Amino acid sequence: MTEFLGFSIELQWFVVLCIGAISTIIQLVYYFGFYFRFVFHRQKPLQENKEPVSVIICARNEAENLDNFLPVILTQDYPVYEVVLVNDCSTDDTETVLKKYTNQYSHFRTSEIKIDKKFSHGKKLAVTIGIKAAKYEQLLFTDADCKPDSDQWIKRMSAHFSENVSIVLGYGGNVQQPGLLNKYIRYDTLLIALNYFSFALAGLPYMGVGRNLGYRRSLFYSGKGFSSHFHLASGDDDLFVNEHATKTNTAVEYNKESHTRTAPKESFQKWFFQKKRHFSTSSHYKPAHKFLLGLEPAGRLVFYTTIVLSFIFIPEIKYYLLGVFVFRLILQIIVIKKAMNRLNEKNLLLISLLFDPVSLFINFILLLAGRFRPSNYQWK
């Protein structure tokens, strides 16, 4: 082929190579500049923190999960801590479960929000009440449907608090279950963690997850809580971190003993709605964060598109681009494998090669859907 759409083969080569080079550079910047920071990072030996900690959990109709998971949280290996459970308008057996553990553990306290038909509210109100009820400066957060992977969770997370560090980012994974949806949800969670850990280590912390997050009580009050985004359904975790985290006041904790786990959604529809709600907050991130988070998938899309088009229209250079593709594939395998080991995720490596391009389209649909407020305002 010597011409295509009136352009000479030389010009075709030049354009495709320029586009391919730009997209490849973008990918390399993210792999070497960000992802390698996390997968090859070595945490310094932690100095044990003996300061008291308040663990805050908000629950709405989570009686079964609370009965299963509260004992793990209430028996942590830590000298002085309390667990504050905010019962937010539950209509199931939550109150009965809470009474059982209140009688059993002296460091377990509860607060309750009564149902008011004239007033609807989101999770941020419950979190705020939990923080106000807390006795201690150092706060750890998890969800009612989450369970720490070990009795060292509080010890590992709280060890990062210092005179300068006010925010600690942890990993909240999903329980491994059969099925393709479970694999994709765990892959998606892994990639999100890879991003926020890597960016934080590069001095650009932009989010955390409420399933495993810590920050100082004084930071919450000095930053006026959730006042700037209280009207949004989501954001009690990521928007708070995005607003207040800096390169000097934020630490990361990814040791396997510090992880929490939750059972993922069992249907695509429920997961899609949850992700749509989470994506609705991304437009409120700082401009630099939105640019960096959008640049990588944009570069990845152009990268894959260039590879495909070159095979179809310019076969003369397909082997050059194939070499670039294989090089990036090797980097991808290294990063995913090491991230899996670091975050204790299993059986995701091979399927991640498929999810890498597929996730571009799923996240694009979610991003568009997230621009519209959910028709049903849900607590979680």
SSE arrangement, N to C? EEHEHEHEHEEHEEHEHHEEHHHH
What number is the mean pLDDT?
90
CATH topology-level name of the largest domain: Spore Coat Polysaccharide Biosynthesis Protein SpsA, Chain A
Percent of residues in beta strands: 5-15%
Q: What value does the Rg take, in angstroms? A: 23 Å
CATH class of the largest domain: Alpha Beta
- Residue windows where pLDDT falls under 50 for at least 5 positions: none
User: Which second-level CATH architecture of the largest domain applies?
Assistant: Alpha-Beta Complex
**What is the total number of structural domains?**
2
Q: Largest sheet, order of strands side by side?
A: 5-4-3-6-10-8-11
The number of helical runs is: 12
Provide the helix percentage.
40-55%
DSSP E strands, number: 12
CATH homologous superfamily placement of the largest domain: Spore Coat Polysaccharide Biosynthesis Protein SpsA, Chain A
Going by helix content, strand content and strand pairing, the class is alpha/beta
Our measurement of the CA-to-CA distance between the termini, rounded to an integer number of angstroms, reads 56 Å
Largest sheet: 7 strands, mixed
Write down the overall geometry: elongated
Characterize this entry briefly.
This protein has 380 residues and is of the alpha/beta class. Helices cover 51% and strands 13% of the residues.
Give an overview of the whole structure.
There is one protein chain. This protein has helices at 9-39, 63-74, 94-104, 123-133, 153-158, 180-201, 217-222, 238-244, 268-279, 287-313, 318-343, 349-370; strands at 3-4, 7-8, 53-59, 81-88, 108-113, 138-143, 146-148, 167-169, 172-174, 213-216, 250-252, 260-262. It has 12 helices and 12 strands. The protein has 2 domains: 3-40 and 288-370, no CATH class; 53-274, Spore Coat Polysaccharide Biosynthesis Protein SpsA, Chain A, CATH 3.90.550.10. The N and C termini lie far apart (56 Å). The longest helix is centred in the first third of the chain and has 31 residues, at 9-39. Strand 3 (53-59), helix 2 and strand 4 form a beta-alpha-beta unit. Helices cover 51% and strands 13% of the residues. The model has no long low-confidence stretch (mean pLDDT 90). The chain has 380 residues and is of the alpha/beta class. The strands form 3 sheets. It has a 7-stranded mixed β-sheet, with helices on both faces.
